[in-house]
Amino acid sequence: MAATSRNEGNANGVRGGGPRCIAIVxxxxxxxxxxxxxxxxxxxxxxxxxxxxxxxxxxxASAEARSHQMSTELNVASVEFLGERFQFxxxxxSVEFLHEMRHVLPVVDAAVVVCEAxxxxxxxxxxVLRELEEADIPRFLFLNKIDTAxxxxxxxxxxxxxxxxxxxxxxxxxxxxxxxxxxxxxxxxERAFIYREHAPSEIxxxxxxxxxxxxxxxxxxLEKLADYDDALMEDLLGDMEPPRDRIFDDLARELQHRHxxxxxxxxxxxxxxxxxxxxxxxxxxxxxxxxxxxIGVVAEGAPxxxxxxxxxxxxxxxxxxxRMLRGRLAEGDVVTSxxxxxxRIAGVLAVKGMEQTRKPAAEEGEIAAFARLEGxxxxxxxxxxxxxxxxxxxVAPPESVHALAVSVKDRKDDVRLAAALARLAEEDxxxxxxxxxxxxxxxxxxxxxxxxxxxxxxxxxRYGVSVESGPPQIGHRETIRSKAGARGRHRKxxxxxxxxxxxxxxxxxxxxxEGIRFVDRITGGVVPRQYIASVEAGMRDFCQNGPLGFxxxxxxxTLTDGSxxxxxxxxxxxxxxARIAMGEAVPQAKPVLLEPILAVEVVIPSEAMSRASAIxxxxxxxxxxxxxxxxxxxxxxxxxxxxxxxxxxxxxxxxSATAGVGSFSARFDHLAExxxxxxxxIVASHALAQAR
Length: 692
Fold this sequence. Notes:
Strand order of the largest sheet: 16-15-21-12-13-20-17-18
Structural class: alpha+beta
Number of helices: 17
Mean pLDDT: 93
Oligomer: single chain
Radius of gyration: 32 Å
Helix content: 25-40%
Distance between the termini: 77 Å
Low-confidence stretches: 1-15
Number of strands: 34
Largest sheet: 8 strands, antiparallel
């Protein structure tokens, strides 16, 4: 493959189109927000870098983020570096908030993946890298906390490579003094730098003791680049020193083609390595032109934006954070979304953490917030005018793994609760709200215990709605084990027309999953045709609440006989007669409790297999089989059947056993009989709840 110069790329408009947008991603507590603070300090965006621990950072500024000292939503900040503008989007790293970055990735130009030399976090790093790989995002790896690293970078790189399907390309090696990294050698520049606290590194002569390490590491870097550049390969085979410009051209091109993931080192907390990272982004990260090509957006046409986040502010109402992929949008412009919604932009806002300042327009390439676009949702594309925007990218919401039943402490807050939850669900695409009339229950579902805890904190803090929460109710059912029959006669005389209905019903069990079946075997008109439907309706009324207190299923009810009165019989009388007959027959047919069983697929790192198996078994799980996770080296999956009653808290246990990365998917499989003391306890508890 022949090398392509950077100038040639610029001629194609790659670097045009406003600021470059860079996502900062990585595992939980890897130092993403700290890196953003260091970048802001280095570029003059803040006078002094803040800290997550002290609660004065630009990012993680929400009450929930500061309370838990973790990112719970994305944050945006803009800087200028050496005459070029950058907008950084700091994304949460916890697996419970990983969905926040999914709507961001399609429209950013590149990503910086912050990680550390900790093999326990390699599976979490793999989750992040997999998201970037699936979205086809150019990415740098910033190996953070190098000042506290306890192993050599080469060894660390071997661990990190297992998390990446794309080759990692080491760009820098540390300079060690007494086991501490005090600086680094840039392998492309062949220069040595010594770290300075919260300041750019200082160039120093390359020491003779470092020369051998540098030559070896540089040759390894060039060998990987030569896999994609024939001219560079010829230089290496001929033992010729390649031109430095060609090396930098190759570094930029192979990053942009997603052939390699460059690895840089530093310490975000001390500001070490930040300047070199910014220079790498400036020279090598693609711009809006390439991003448009990646997502299939043409350069010419009406202004186009993609919404990456929605939130509701206390005073300003609804706000939609979006990137301008083409053209500009100004206050007062009327836009149409990919969902067909037409709305007027009430204001354009520049965003820096929690701060918002008005501006006249959002220019091409910028990330900006649009005020009061009612009906526009996260993931929508927006275009100027009345023509519906084409979908830029489609991101499906993640499957829920944890749920709570929520109810207001004060009944007068019922309406406020529904409205507040609807707003929170609009902000957070991973939240699901379900109303279950059977239980009179509102169910809140999401990505884990912390995800729902933060949601309830927002509910109380922003909207003043306090709720009680607990495990969701389980959809128990009941059926019968044998046949039985009974006569039901409803007769009432109270002056004038009376009431008369008389039926004989036989009940019999059906195979699991067959539901409720009604059979009419009346002959001779002993029950007139016009009352048959009423008999069935009465039977189904009874089935809503069987003798154990739960809905009846998998039962066949046959109408075999009966009688009627020419004057007193009515639809209501036969409906009541059917209820009476069912009330006599079903208790004689050996009713039994049924519990829902879910088919569950658990995914975990291979080393956690034994722990995960024990967790599944402890929850009355029937393990059906084990397998390697398709396409995930070093990961396994367990297929099992688990009672729904055992599912609450499963995700908490799995993540505790897998350093936060284990997960599962579940679907209803069948109903199974439950007998003995467990069944008796459920029936008694249900009866007590109904009596209250």
